[in-house]
Amino acid sequence: MNKTNDSLLGQKSVAKPLPWWRKRTFTIGIALLGLIIILVIMTINVAKFETHLATGDTVLLELAPVDPRSFMQGDYMTLSYALEGEVLNELNEKFPENEYYINASEGYVIVALDENNVGTFTRLVNVIPSDLAANEMALYYRVRNNMMKLATNAFFFQEGHAEAFEVAEYGLFRVNDKGEPLLTDMVDGVFKVIKPEVNDLETNNFETNRFDNEKVFDDDKTFDN
User: Fold this and answer.
1) Are residues 30 and 64 in the same domain?
2) What are the contacts of 185-193 at 24+ separation with CB within 8 A?
3) 38-87 pLDDT, tens per residue?
4) pTM, whole model, 2 decimals?
5) Which domain holds residue 106?
């Protein structure tokens, strides 16, 4: 009797394998859930990008000399900014014997905007001040391993249009309320957005200028914080 009961209990404890169609349904369900999560994240990121582009305040940052071309993956400009050097110089003056602090530093650089919205260095702060002047803007920066990270270090463009961007002197940015700059265009020395000549099929790739005229700013336009 005991042997019979033990045998029955053993049989009951063995789990039956799932039918193939249930395994397939489960696998498809997991894949669909993962796809939905990815799509939601992408949608949120696109919405953030569009909001940043539409509502961000405008600033021009002067470019520092770097190698202007690369052929690794199409064409792009390697970018560096004069403001980055000014931030590093200020940190070195404040902490001349504290290399660790400099290499682990982060905060905000306050820039003053001129009549063309070109940002120039004024000071460094730890948090965005609530009493910024009407012509001031805060930009987030961080330093790691003596490398300054202020904005993107590359601007991609259609292959074959490198010559048009050789005259670039400024990067045009939209800055959100967190001080994060988003690069939208390159600008020349007379404050015109650089637009290479393209044929009709390529035009959509270069419709990044959000201004109605050739100048980045109207003469009577004031900066709106």
Assistant:
1) no
2) 185/209, 186/77, 186/155, 187/60, 187/216, 191/60, 191/116, 191/215, 191/216, 191/217, 192/216
3) 888 888 777 666 766 667 889 999 998 765 454 334 577 888 899 999 99
4) 0.65
5) 57-206
